[in-house]
Amino acid sequence: MAAITSAGVGSGLDIEGLVSKLVAAEGQPATLRLTRKEAVLQANLSALGNLKSTLSSFQTSAQGLKDLSVFQARKASSSHESLFTVSATNSAVASSYAIKVEQLAQAAKIRSVDFTSGTEVVGAGTLAISLGADSFNITVAADTTLAGIRDAINQASGNPGLSASLIQVDSGTKLVLTSGKVGAAKTITLAATDSDANDGKDLTRLATANFTTLQAAQDSIIYVDQQKVTRDSNSLSDVITGVTLTLKGADINTTGTLSVTLDKDSVKSKVNDFIKAYNSLASGINSLSGYDPETKKGGPLFGDSTLRSVQNQLRQTLSNPVPGSTTFATLAEIGIKTNKKGELEVNSTKLDAVIASDFESVSKLFASSDGLAKRFDTMLTNYLSSTGSLTSRVDGVKNQINDVTEQRDRLNLRLVAVEARYRKQFTAMDALLGQLQATGSYLAQQLSNLPGSGSSDN
Questions:
Q1: Which H helix or E strand runs over 135?
Q2: Is the pLDDT of residue 46 over 60?
Q3: Which residue blocks in 221-304 are alpha helix, DSSP H?
Q4: Edge-to-edge strand ranges of the sheet holding 188-194
Q5: Which of 15-24, 53-62, 418-427 is the most confident on average?
């Protein structure tokens, strides 16, 4: 809140206005200088941030090509996805296979005889339930209902993957047991020990002999190049090295083709991403460092030494041949050249041809120990790491901005002192002028009272 002063009361002068203008005039040169300096620094900081971002994006694209494993990726396909789908890892051999699916692996499902309802008491005793080689027991109290049996099965801590449910049909209520695991070995069996005697009327109604099979437990059966394969799963990853088959349907009369090839499309996509990222970087650098002769203005980093260093490193890394390559040593040899703007242009026909005919040499151009992608990754790390030169440059600009802020704070403190000094001086002058005005008024009054100084009565 501004202080309330009485400056100007004695003389009538606008002392506050005078002080304000004098302080503003004294501080204006330094204020303008600091404002201009901060604006330039903020523009530099923003430009360096943009440069860092585009360099980081380009590094990400280069990293996508620096490992040989990228070029060893496999693409697997199925001619009949209604029968099977397929995926492959780098360890898969490029080849094709004839696949027939005779049957899918399936889980066992059985149902009990009829009960009057879910609330019917089934009697006391013990149920020993097995799912394949795994088993668990349920102790049944005398008042346990069919619904209670269902709940006990589902909640049993030793349950290996069996689910129980009740269905209400016209003839009554049935207990349905379904295995959560497929395979011929995962059969469901129940042995009932009735505490009231095995009379076939109470708990023994839940013995295996009194259940009907709705779906038999069975293994999957397929043929790979006419060779029979039996497994207890519909996901087969141990048949063909590096390949996972997922069975979807069965038709012994239909032969599907499983194909494994080098994933050249993925590599080409990564190469195109690399080119786009490089061109975005080159365009950004041109914008930041360029000079417009018409406006006679340069970009925010025109003449910046760090940016010049980045440009030179990029050009050098791009143009130096990759040593040890027997076929391709430069990007130009696979159809990628630099234009006048410093951006990359692609001859797609040539690139497609070399990827199709000499995929291994293309991979070495990018991902060998001194390949282009690894070179760029190393070079960019030197700029972008926490101790990199570009990071240091950004930190330096931030420190300069902080210094401007400190200078502005010191200037404001000095102007506060200047304002106080001016106000003190003008207040003293105001008081003196007030005294002089009072003295003048007194003398004028005294002079007017002297004889002969004015009109007299007749």
A1: strand 134-140
A2: yes
A3: 264-289
A4: 134-140, 125-131, 188-194
A5: 53-62
- Measured CA to CA in angstroms, residue 225 lies from 81, 102, 233, 240 at distances of 18, 13, 20, 11
Strand 297-298 to strand 235-236: parallel, antiparallel, or no bridges (unpaired)?
unpaired
Look at strands 95-103 and 220-224 and give their pairing.
antiparallel
Mean pLDDT of all residues in 288-295: 84
- SS3 percent helix, strand, coil of the chain, rounded to 5, is 45, 25, 30
Q: Report residue 13 as tokens.
A: 């002068």
Give me the helix-helix angle, 264-289 and 359-367, nearest 10°.
Answer: 40
CA–CA separation, 138 vs 127, rounded Å? 5
CB 192 within 8 A of CB 125: yes
Rounded to an integer, what distance in angstroms lies between the CA atom of residue 119 and that of residue 356? 70
The continuous run of DSSP H or E covering 256 comes out as strand 251-262
Tokens of 281: 């970087």
- Around 88, how many Cα atoms within 13 Å sit in the side-chain half-sphere? 22
> With contact defined as beta carbons under 8 Å apart, do 188 and 131 qualify?
yes
Q: What is the pTM of this model?
A: 0.66
Whether the CA torsion 369, 374, 380, 381 is positive or negative: it is negative
CA distance 100 to 256: 6
Q: Which helix (H) or strand (E) holds 148?
A: helix 146-155
pLDDT at 2: 43
Helix (H, G, I), strand (E, B) or coil at 178: strand
Q: What is the spatial distance between Cα 280 and Cα 261, in angstroms, rounded to a whole number?
A: 32
Beta-carbon contacts of 111 under 8 Å, excluding residues fewer than 6 positions away, are 167, 174, 175, 176, 177, 211, 212, 214
Q: Give residue 263's identity as a one-letter amino acid code.
A: D
Compute the C-alpha angle 384/387/390, nearest 5°.
45
Average of pLDDT values for 247-262? 97
Q: Is the dihedral of CA 224, 226, 232, 238 positive or negative?
A: negative
Buried b (16+ CB within 10 A) or exposed e, 339-351: eeebbbebeeeeb
